[in-house]
Amino acid sequence: MSQDAKSAAGRVLVLNGPNLNLLGSREPAIYGRETLADVEALCRDAAAAHGLEADCRQTAHEGVLIDAIHEARSAHRGIVINPGAYSHTSVAIRDALAAAYLPVVEVHLSNIHRRESFRHHSHVSAVADAVICGAGSHGYALALTHLAQLVNKEAR
Ligand code: DQA
Predict the structure, then answer these.
(1) Catalytic annotation on 108?
(2) What are the helix (H) ranges across the chain?
(3) Which of 110, 111, 117 for mutating ligand 1's site (highest number of atoms within 8 Å of CB)?
(4) For the segment 22-66, what is each residue's pLDDT rounded down to a tens digit?
(5) Domain coordinates of the chain in residue numbers?
(6) For the segment 73-110, what is each residue's pLDDT rounded down to a tens digit?
(7) Class of domain 3-155
(8) Which atom of ligand 1 is nearest to the CA of 107?
(9) Alpha-carbon dihedral 34, 37, 38, 44, rounded to 10 degrees
(10) Is the shortest distance between the CB of 147 and ligand 1 below 6 Å?
(11) DSSP secondary-structure letter at 84?
């Protein structure tokens, strides 16, 4: 297998939704001091430790997130997603993930269950294989470790 084909075979999508570009300066007491660039570097390292390549994207736009999930159907082996506030509002993102037929791990930096009641329900959780919240940026490393296990199980 060529190097290109090898990396395509092990590519996973890491999607971050609205306001997560502000990490580091956005409510640091809740979301921590690490920037999105720090989180994405951590994701690439965690993926690489499991022989995977993390394709990291962030957007504030619901439709762009949905387009990326559609693209993942043929371009990626699994998805780690922090949909931000869309977790609590977007049936469309939930439906896109359900139609992707890929392993999905949902991540939240904060413990959404310890916060305002409108954050307690996530539409995405029902279609995620696992949900990690409240572990800060380390949650992304946990998510990628678990995603790698799911991806490798499917490959067997
Ligand atoms: C978040 C939690 C959401 O409620 C919030 O809207 C976010 C970030 C988290 O990572 O803790 O934007 O998904």
Answers:
(1) yes
(2) 3-9, 28-31, 36-48, 62-75, 91-98, 138-155
(3) 110
(4) 999 999 999 999 999 999 999 999 999 999 999 999 999 999 999
(5) 3-155
(6) 999 999 999 999 999 999 999 999 999 999 999 999 99
(7) alpha beta
(8) 10
(9) 150
(10) no
(11) G
